[in-house]
Design goal:
This protein is globular. The chain is of the alpha+beta class. The protein is 37% helix and 18% strand. α1 runs parallel beside α8. Strands 2-5-4-3-1-6-9-8-7 form a nine-stranded mixed beta sheet, with helices on both faces. The chain contains nine helices and nine strands. It has a single domain, classed as Class II aldolase/adducin N-terminal domain (L-fuculose-1-phosphate Aldolase), CATH 3.40.225. It starts with 9 loop residues before the first helix and ends in an 8-residue tail after the last helix.
Length: 274
């Protein structure tokens, strides 16, 4: 899916990133400076009015599908909850060169970070992979650390792919509508490592949100950055219900398979889970 003209302008994107960061923070999913956001934009827009400083930027990996595109990304150590207050001090814009191997970083003179997020390798790899596969002109990613989802990933049973999806999709009809593939689960990998990047890239080919075991989640969207935040909220709400049920001795029934099938049939949900 690609966005169509008239395209949003830079200030609209900055406002949307701020709103997404604020909502993720309201979910208690970005304690301190945890979490990061990026969006990849495939059409020209004015950068230097907001981000006038420019410097060479070494890409952490080649990204040929992103040649000529720009990635707006949060700075390392910046709080997602603060982005909406002053986007320019918390974000930078990486312009990918025509070779897909080099870039330039645009920032504000008031920027409050020395480097972009340490997870930028994962962001860049997924943007490149998704755009190469789909041809979309827009892609958004959010990494966050929702407490109930992260807690469940410390329980071995919930690190099994089919098990966690079936357990979490049973609490609200809306969950399977918005997460029809369920929730992908990745094994624990060192944050920011090449192994984490590769597992994340593979997982997001099949799922709109993946759970990084013992760490957090990453969600994607080719519609809007707030849609990616919505996916984190749907998954974390389901995990909250599951956690409450565990604490309460697993007494709740949840939606039955028959009830879920009715939802899927009524709303024509493309899923194989029920």
């Amino acid at each position: 899916m690609a966005l169509e003209p008239p395209f949003p302008e830079l200030d609209e994107f900055l406002a949307a990133i701020g709103a997404a960061g604020q909502r993720v923070s309201e979910l208690a999913a970005s304690e301190g400076a945890a979490g990061n956001i990026s969006i990849c934009i495939g059409w020209p827009f004015e950068v230097r009015r907001r981000f006038p400083l420019v410097e060479p930027f070494e890409l952490p990996l080649p990204a040929p599908a992103l040649a000529g595109r720009c990635v707006i990304v949060s700075g390392s150590g910046r709080r997602l909850r603060d982005i909406h207050v002053d986007p320019a001090v918390n974000l930078g814009v990486v312009a990918i060169g025509g070779d897909g191997r080099s870039g330039q970083l645009y920032t504000s003179p008031r920027r409050l970070f020395a480097r972009v997020t340490s997870e930028f390798n994962s962001h860049l790899a997924v943007h490149n992979d998704q755009i190469e596969r789909s041809g979309t002109n827009f892609h958004a990613l959010i990494h966050a650390q929702p407490p109930h989802l992260t807690y469940l990933s410390h329980i071995p049973a919930y690190r099994k792919q089919e098990y966690i999806s079936r357990r979490l999709l049973r609490w609200e009809p809306e969950t399977i509508v918005n997460l029809p593939e369920g929730i992908g689960v990745l094994p624990y990998r060192l944050p920011g490592s090449p192994a984490m990047m590769e597992a994340n890239l593979q997982g997001l080919r099949d799922y709109r949100i993946v759970l990084w075991s013992k760490h957090g989640v990453m969600a994607r969207s080719d519609q809007s950055v707030t849609k990616a935040a919505d996916r984190i909220e749907y998954a974390e709400t389901a995990a909250l219900y599951e956690y409450m049920d565990l604490v309460n001795g697993s007494q709740a029934e949840g939606l039955t398979q028959e009830e879920l099938r009715e939802v899927v049939q009524t709303f024509d949900v493309p899923t194989t889970l029920v």
